[in-house]
Amino acid sequence: MGLHQVSVHQEHQQTKISVKSKTLLLIIGIIFIGANLRAPITAVGPLISSIRDSLGISNILAGTLTTVPLLAFALLSPFAPKLSRKYGMEGTLFVSLILLTAGIVLRTIPGVGTLFAGTVLVGLGIAICNVLLPSVIKHKFPQNLGVMTGIYAVSMNLCGAIASGLSTPISLKIGWHGALGYWGLFALISILFWIPQIRSRQKPMKKESEKKQSINLWKSKLAWQVTIFMGLQSLIFYTIVAWLPEILVQQGVSSNSAGWMLSLMQFAVIPFTFIVPILAGRMKNQLLLVAITGVLFIAGMFGILYGSEALIPLWVIMIGIAGGFAFSLAMMFFSLRTRSTHEAAELSGMAQSFGYLLAAAGPTLFGILHDTFHSWTMPLWMLIIVSFLILVTGISAGKKGYVSTN
Q: One digit per residue, pLDDT tens: the chain, 406 residues?
């Protein structure tokens, strides 16, 4: 082998190592961004009473701490694709991580104003990440959509569940301000791992290509089916997170056990958020997965409403598994039902905007039905009907096709 061939071989090896390193940094960056998409929100619920008593605010005002981020998701999601086209996807995600970190830090400063201002920033930062991350995965890992979607979904749900469980123990040591600020560490690490992506970012699309790629998703029947599916599964998740412990307590379960049942549901989600995207990516259509989702949701809700108290863990696990299926399918539909990165971002923005509006309304409507009928029967029947609608819209969204040709 001549000197020239040796030199070329070495350069080739160095290039392969460089590509692998960049890919590894990107995967780690995606994992840490995923870790930030629920933890700053789920950490608040267990601390609501401490926050309320410390600041002297009403129950209604304290309750809006979990609603504000959802409204921020709904309002900002449609604009995330436009920001990414103008400033670049990597740069837009980087700024959103800075907003998220600033919001978490702001929430640690005593005062009602700083608490809510920080919560708004947290919502804005997460909203952009929510919309653009599926698009990044479609662009960077087109041959491994299922695996990468599963990896980031597991990171998101695992950290969300951990945050729910650890917030109270952490607050007992460093106060609720510190417990909310604790999760800023993940946001800071995300920023550090995303810096290399800024250096290697691609230029934003030119306006000419933007016009060529522009589609009106609001006129696409398939886009609406994906959007409604996303919205209904979000409604069930946030409603159950808000009300499940209260429902179980009134059925005779201790408050401590009811809290553990909520944790059990969230942990049941985790393995399926990894498995389902891989299965969905390998299937010609996702109808079987949609059917399993609908059946498990309906059976779990019926179990909570009419089943034996001794089987409550089973009903909760069924709802958790269904939630894992539903969320994973929603995330995969953004990629599977679009032809380009731009379309994926647009569909993600549309679906998450409408979806989180539904999610924000769900817990409130559930509570109104309970106050009106003085029982949990009608509210749970509402979720059974929603589960049936998830099955119907999922069957349409699960068929092979693209929003641009619909």
A: 555 554 544 555 555 556 678 888 889 999 999 999 988 988 887 787 788 888 888 777 877 787 888 888 888 888 888 888 888 888 999 999 999 999 999 999 988 999 999 999 999 999 999 889 988 898 889 888 889 999 988 999 888 888 877 888 888 888 988 989 988 888 999 999 898 888 765 555 444 344 445 567 888 999 999 999 999 999 999 888 878 888 888 888 887 788 788 888 988 999 999 999 999 999 999 999 999 999 999 999 999 999 888 899 999 999 999 999 999 999 999 999 998 888 888 998 899 888 888 888 888 888 888 888 989 999 999 999 999 999 999 999 999 999 876 6
Burial (CB count within 10 angstroms: exposed 0-12, middle 13-18, buried 19+), residue 238 = buried
Task: Select from 177, 201, 183, 190 the least CA-distant residue to 42.
Answer: 183
Joined together, the tokens standing for residue 51 give 């926050």
Q: Cβ atoms within 10 A of the Cβ of 165, count?
A: 18
Model's pTM, two decimal places? 0.81
